[in-house]
From TrEMBL:
The keyword Magnesium does not apply. The chain crosses the membrane at residues 12-34, 77-101, 132-149, 196-215, 235-254, 302-333, 354-375, 411-432. It is found in: Cell membrane. This is Trk system potassium uptake protein TrkH. Keywords: Cell membrane, Ion transport, Membrane, Potassium, Potassium transport, Transmembrane, Transmembrane helix, Transport. GO terms for cellular component: plasma membrane. Its main location: membrane. GO terms for molecular function: potassium:chloride symporter activity. It is a multi-pass membrane protein. It comes from Natronincola peptidivorans.
Length: 450
């Protein structure tokens, strides 16, 4: 029966993923548009509800309403559930229900699950899904307890616990939604810019959520024995460390006479590190993004473009893709035919996939920029580019123009967030994938490059 349904509807993983996320977003949008979801009891315009649902499910964080000020506890809870589903992926959620109901997980489901978590082997994929579920709940729980203790002293126990859970889940899933509108609308975590406990907790959750499920599994199995890690984990951890510390130094240099001018040493260090981590791809901010220098905005856009790691809650082209392109340049300069790292050679086909991802990503971003610039020419191009890359990278940082976007521009951002969460290559494959490829080679001829 399953094979017959599969033949009839041609449901590859890419198509199933696109349909699944669309269904979740649509249901979320309907719920958020209901009067019960807003504090005023009014019906939320569907385009804005759709924008919020896409941003939450796509773990982006761009908002047209301040989450605390506009949405009721019911609406905030819907957003929280959407973040959780979007961060884990609906295939892992589906597997959780199958395990609870003690249903058999077949080969087809295991294959879909393998693609969902971006693992290489189908063997042990169900065990990996269990570890992901348990690990996620454990880490989010620890983060929620720490933040709840902090927030309870300011907001009261009930509000403190809910805020602790909300911000822990949002940080771990790299979503960037916050409930700090109680102090000032759209202020994110600026209030806590010098609070080491909040900063370190949020940054740790973001980084752990952004390195990917496969790296977790490697660390769980091999502990601190780095030499035993898979090549994927080694590349991810190296790239993550280099990007965090080099970006932190970059932000310090660029902002030391601007936003950091009146800060103490502790606050400057925290702000530099936080600003280096949040664009990949969390969306929280402890300083006013709109007031960043032009150099810092450019550095932020570069980090949003790179994003987190494969098989994680983060977006962007991914750290492994970025490293592969760097290796290809090094290989070309050295006149080498191989891509080598950590004493291993990478397969040739991976470079083609990496460049395909980057090309589709850049093309989509330029289309988004051109579309919004045509629809709303009054918006500065730098702000439009920042918004588009933030949507594509599922980041959620903004220079403040999100609320200025009209319906058509918001629709474009919705599409970009959707593509960013699924992966632009996955979306293109879902639309253009064909099962009837004829494996014939055309005559070979050379062209000039460069």
């Amino acid at each position: 029966m399953q094979s017959m349904i599969r033949r009839k509807y041609n449901l590859t993983y890419a198509k199933l993923s696109a349909i699944g996320f669309f269904a979740i977003i649509f249901i979320g949008a309907v719920l958020l548009s209901l009067p019960i979801s807003s504090k005023s009891g009014e019906v939320t315009p569907f385009i804005n509800a759709l924008f919020t649902a896409t941003s939450a499910t796509g773990v982006t964080g761009l908002v047209v309403y301040d989450t605390y000020s506009y949405f009721s506890v019911f609406g905030q809870s819907v957003i929280l559930v959407l973040i959780k589903i979007g961060g884990l992926g609906f295939m892992i959620i589906a597997t959780m229900f199958l395990l609870i109901l003690k249903k058999k997980i077949g080969i087809r489901e295991r294959n879909f699950l393998k693609e969902s978590v971006n693992t290489i082997h189908i063997g042990g994929v169900v065990r990996l899904a269990k570890h992901i579920l348990v690990g996620t709940l454990l880490l989010e729980g620890i983060g929620a307890i720490i933040l709840a203790i902090k927030f309870s002293s300011e907001m009261g126990v009930k509000e403190g616990i809910f805020n602790g859970i909300f911000h822990s889940v949002s940080a771990f899933n790299n979503a960037g939604f916050d409930l700090m509108g109680r102090y000032e609308e759209y202020s994110s975590l600026i209030r806590y810019s010098d609070d080491a406990l909040v900063n370190i907790t949020i940054m740790t959750l973001i980084v752990i959520g952004g390195i990917g499920f496969l790296v977790w599994e490697d660390i769980y199995k091999n502990k601190a024995k780095f030499k035993k890690y898979h090549l994927h984990s080694k590349i991810v951890l190296l790239a993550t460390m280099v990007l965090i510390f080099s970006a932190a130094i970059g932000f310090y240099v660029l902002e030391r006479n601007n936003l950091f001018a009146d800060m103490g040493i502790k606050e400057t260090i925290l702000a530099s590190l936080f600003q280096a981590i949040t664009p990949r791809t969390a969306g929280f901010n402890t300083i006013d993004t709109a007031e960043l220098s032009e150099g810092s905005k450019l550095l932020t856009m570069i980090l949003m473009f790179i994003g987190g790691s494969s098989g994680s809650t983060a977006g962007g082209i991914k750290t492994t893709t970025f490293i592969i392109t760097i290796l290809s340049v090094v290989s070309l300069v050295r006149h080498s035919n191989d891509l080598n790292i950590f004493g291993r050679r990478l397969e040739d086909s991976i470079l083609k996939r990496a460049y395909s991802i980057i090309t589709i990503y850049i093309t989509s971003a330029f289309i988004g920029m051109l579309f919004i610039s045509f629809i709303q020419p009054e918006l500065a191009l730098s702000n439009t580019a920042f918004e588009v890359l933030s949507a594509m990278g599922t980041v959620g940082l903004s220079t403040g123009i999100t609320r200025q976007l009209n319906a058509l521009s918001r629709l474009m951002v919705i599409i970009l967030m959707f593509c960013g969460r699924l992966g632009s290559l996955a979306v293109l494959m879902a639309v253009a994938e064909s099962k009837n490829n004829i494996s014939t080679k055309k005559p070979l001829e050379k062209i000039v490059i460069g």
